[in-house]
Amino acid sequence: MSRPPTEPEDPVPPEPQVVQLALCTSDPIATVRRYTEALGFADAGGNLFWGERISVLQDLDEPDAACLVWWLVGRQDFVQLELFQHSRPPQRPQDPGRRPSDHGWTRFGIAVPDFDAALAGMRSSGLEPITEPMLAGGLRRVAFHDPELAVVVELMEEGVALPGGVRPRFYDLAPALVSATLSVADLDRARTFLVETLGLVPVPDVVLHGPQHEALWGLAGARREAFVVRGGDVFLEVVRYDEPAGRAPDPGRRLSDQGIMNVAVGFRERPALDDLYARIVAAGHVVADPLPPPPAGGTYLHDDQGTSWEILGLPREFDAQYGFVPVPGWQVQPRWPQPAVPPAAG
User: Fold this and answer.
1) C-beta of residue 203 within 8 angstroms of C-beta of residue 229
2) pLDDT band (50, 70, 90) for residue 6
3) Which candidate among 36, 82, 91, 248 keeps its CA 20 to 30 Å from the CA of 70?
C-alpha cells in the first residue's frame, strides 16, 4: 500500500545577526578616541548624510536633516558601533534624571582580553567606574557612565565563562560587543517581537546579570525580571524593572538626541531581509520607509512598545562602504592581536 505524499516542511528562516549598535554622541572625536585608544576598537571611517530620507528614517521634525556618522569595529565580523552627531535638528542632551531602569536602550557590554589595560585606558580617558569591579563566573566586570554617549558601558573580562564564551576573531582586534540591554514595560510583548517577528534566538539558559550586578550601574537592590535572545554572537538582554519601576521616555524624545539610538539586525542575503520586512509589516509594526532596491540597504522601524530598530541587508562586497572594515590610519592602528583566539570563518 503506497503512502500518501508528505507535505513539504516550511523552510526555516535564516537567523538574523545583531550587526550594529547606533549611538548619538555629543563629541564624536572624544568617543572615537576613547574607544580606539582605551578599548582597542578600530576606526572604520565615516560619512556625512543629509536630506529627506534621513528625516524620514529617523522620524525627525526637520525636513532636511543633516548628521555626521562614524563607525568603529572590533574583532567580530559584521558588527559595528555607529556614532551619530546631528546638526539638523541639533542634538539635545539626555534627560539628566534618566535612570538605567527607565524604558528604552539603556546600556551595552564590551569584552576585552586584557581587563586591567582596558580599565586603565578608560580611566586615562577621564572616566572613573561607578563601582569597584565585581565577579561573574570568576571574571571581572565594571561599568562606566559615558558622558558623551549618556549611557552605561559595561567592561567585561573575557574568558570561557563569559556568557557566549570567547567571541571569534575576524579582525586582529581586542574588543567584542557582547550585549545591549533594553528596558521595557511588557516582557511578553517584547519576547513576541524579538523571537516571532525578528527571528532572534531565545537562550533561556543564559543569564547575563544577576541581581547583585545591578549595583554596577547604580541600581543596588533593584527588583527585575529579564530574558536574553541571541543574534549571531551578540546578546540582547530585555529587562522589566519593578523597583525602581521603569519610566517611559519623554514623548518628545527624538532619535537624534544623545544616547543609544537603536540596534540593527541584519543578513548577508537580500531575500532574508525581504522576508523579515514582510513579517514586520504583517505584524503591524511601524516601518519608517520601504526597503531600498537591492542589493544593499535597510530601514528603521518602531516595535509595539516604541523601541527603535534598524534592519539591514549587506552583501560582503559592501562592507567597506558601510563601515564594517578597519581603515588604515596614521593615528590609530589595529592592535592587540590575539593569536590564541582562532580566526572566524568568513
Assistant:
1) yes
2) low
3) 248
CA 261, distance to chain mean position in Å, is 9
| Residue at 330 is within a domain | no
> Would residue 56 be called left, alpha or beta, if left means φ above 0 and alpha means ψ between -120 and 50 degrees?
alpha
CA distance 81 to 84: 10
- pLDDT, average across residues 70-97: 96
Contact 187, 198 (CB under 8 A): no
Domain containing residue 258: CATH number: 3.10.180.10
What integer pLDDT is reported at residue 233 of this predicted model?
94
Report residue 262 CA to chain centroid gap: 7
- Name the residue range of residue 297's domain: 17-318
First to last CA, the chain: 49
Domain count, the chain: 1
Three cell numbers written together for 55 = 528625516
Q: Nearest 10 degrees: CA dihedral of 57, 58, 63, 66?
A: -100
Q: What angle do CA 304, 307, 312 make, to 5 degrees?
A: 100
69 domain residue, yes or no = yes
